[in-house]
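Problem: given the chain below (872 residues), write out its structure.
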Amino acid sequence: MAFDAQMRLVADDPERVALIGAQSGERLSQGDLARCIEQFALRLDAGRGILLIRTDNSINAVIAYLASLHAQCPALLVGAGAEVQKHQLLAQIPVLYVYEPHLDHLDVLPQHRDADLHPDLALLLSTSGSTGEQKLVRLSHSNLLSNAGAICTHLELTRQDRAPTGLPMAYSFGLSIINSHLHAGASLLVTDKSLINADFWGDVRRHQCTSFSGVPEQFKLLEKTGLFPRELPSLRYVTQAGGRLYADQVEKLARRGQSEGWNFFVMYGQTEAAPRMAYLPPSEAISNPGSIGRAIPGGRLELIDTHGEKVTIAGAQGELVYSGDNVMMGYARNAGDLARGQEVERLFTGDLASRDENGLYTLHGRTARFLKITGKRISLDAVEQRLHALGAEGLAVGQDECLGLVMCSPQDPSAIARQLVEELGIPASRLQTVRIDKLPLKSNGKPDYSAAMALLPPASELPAPNPTAKGSVQDQVLAAFLAQFPGEDIQPETTFESLEASSIEFVDLELRLSAILPALPKGWHRQDIAQLAASTQRQEAPAGQRFYDPVSLRSLGIMLVVLLHVVGDTPDAGLQLSRDTALFGLSAIIRYLTMPLYTLLAGLAFAQLGRGEMAPARFLSHLATTVVLPALIAMVAFAVISTLMGSRFGIYGLDDVVTNLVMPYAHFWYINAFILLSGGAYLLYRGLAEHAIWVATAIGAAVLILPVGLSEDIWAVNRTLGILPFFVLGLMLVRFEAAISQWKWPLLGLALITVVALYPLAYADMLQTGNRADFRTWDGFLLSLAVIVIALHASRLLGPIRPLAASSFTIYLWHVFGTSASRRALEAMEIWHPLPHLLLGTSVGLVAPILLYLILRRLPYGYIVLGQRRRH
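Solution.
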């Protein structure tokens, strides 16, 4: 299998495997792939036009890309999550086809049938780091073919090679892996997992991959986490590109490869060169670890000084310039550019470099108005244009790894800085802002960038970019706090507790810090930033960690909530299953765990975050903004939609309004219970800590409320009492954690025995009496307690689901919209089998609220719906 001159893939060994789906296990031979390409090409029947593909590293996406080459329809690749970029491009570029691989759905935009496209145009890719400036690289068939051939040559690719697609397809480096391996007749393991995923390595080993590729940050994380296995018998080589990897890390990887029998290639490139331009041979990586090597086969590197003259002296610096058949046709900023032919012969990279006497090139920094931050190429001119679009006037200056903004604007610079940090995708600590009354100008009226640069803090005061440098861990922790709480006055002495944030923000920050610190110390939320950074030097023993992970437990809890609502815990709810089915039996176990676990975590968070120590006004304000208000918004939305759909939860009169405010309403009853539990705990805590009047108030309230509440379950009092023991257990888990940890294994054994002994009896009772699983009975309480103990022990194995915790409250409030919509959709299609309902309902119930959470985080007033404090 190889590409012909027009980048059409030709199968020369139809039976040889070409693609393997890591998730699906699907295997496509060369012949299968060729037929799939031809079939997809037939779908492009509206004529030659741009095909926009939302690439998701799936077999469908690979086929669509190859079919675009086959049909001579230029592909425009965007990331699977780049919704904003997609809409910007649709408004800017005359796209004829839009393909969503995960749905296998192709849209045709007929108004763009007659777009003027150059015959050689094959591919459009976004540049590696522009700042909202939608500038696309135009690549021809010969560009792609030349680069694929050169890579095959210097990596000595053969049909026996197999590479995982561990980098995004829309990223030029990731796409070049696909092109080069298919051109060599090799095969691909198609996966959307990254190198920083344990499952990725299982797939690599199982499918006997001969190589993998990564960018600097991934290799740094691999070293930190130890995920890169020591024994991969099939591994032949490893490649690195996408930015500079520090020399000591290059040497370490090269030596490891030498000892384990594989080669380490350092590579250098830009999207504008399709994308690779240079490589460092493995034989020279140990002796020249700071070098990018020499030009790829068929290419040529040279250095040009500031006068446009060629640099010939070894060791002298100049701008690195590349020539070769893989140099782009040019850029595209609008529809008119798509008809233009080859406009670039030599690529001025913007990198300062030198060449030694052996012909090896070394980079020394960026030239002119470009810089790089964490591997992203930033155009300072484009930053200034973006500032103007945001209504601010300023100058953009800086150096590699630090961007400076000198602004004169009535707007708050910190708000603009937050916006740019998000758009650029750089750490907040890499952006410096200075506000002045008047921008510095030269006598000719042009901006005085030297004067602007002088207004910034000296380079010695800027955060160190080297992650191995002293203090860099503190810098990363500080950046995590700034990213979580933009606009706050974050200092090295700041603690999470001092910010009085919500438990969801606690979880979100813990996830951020877990990516930086090898092990978060106990009580990290009470330690300041400097202490957290210093904890890595103390190398705290693993025994100092909890035996359970509250974040993973929160994620597990919300997954089970959604699953339980899909399955149902009575024969007339959810899937309406018979009581004697295995799935219904599973729902009983879930019911014994879900609300008890969630309540235990609520008690744990109350004690852990010191809610009882808040001033009364602050506690009430916190409860109102983080719980009550977002719950009311969700309840109103739920009530409106239920009414429109004619549901039993609809509001059809004033009586319904009163009833649903006083009595338990759908799944929102737990909000009532949470308020009662938190309020009661707060009153008792204040009473014990300060004045007996608080205890008297709590007792008086209980005396007045409980009798009526128990008889009618007003405000879910009855249900609250049922889960009260688990809230108390959460408080006790914090208070007596050390003692419980000492007895964790005997407790686990006792829990397993309890489940084995009691669950069959409880299930048999459910079948006979028709009652549902009830944790409020003695045997039900013991079963719930046992299942919780098992979950506590298993939580350390649930790392992959930890990210769900950040959006768990949003999922709880809004998941029923997704589960209900999926059920109605399947019923409308007359699909009644439980499995589709289970899979679709659970997936949509989780994914829809997560998308809502991600969208609301970007909206000006989204924090209200999410239950987070507004940051100024």
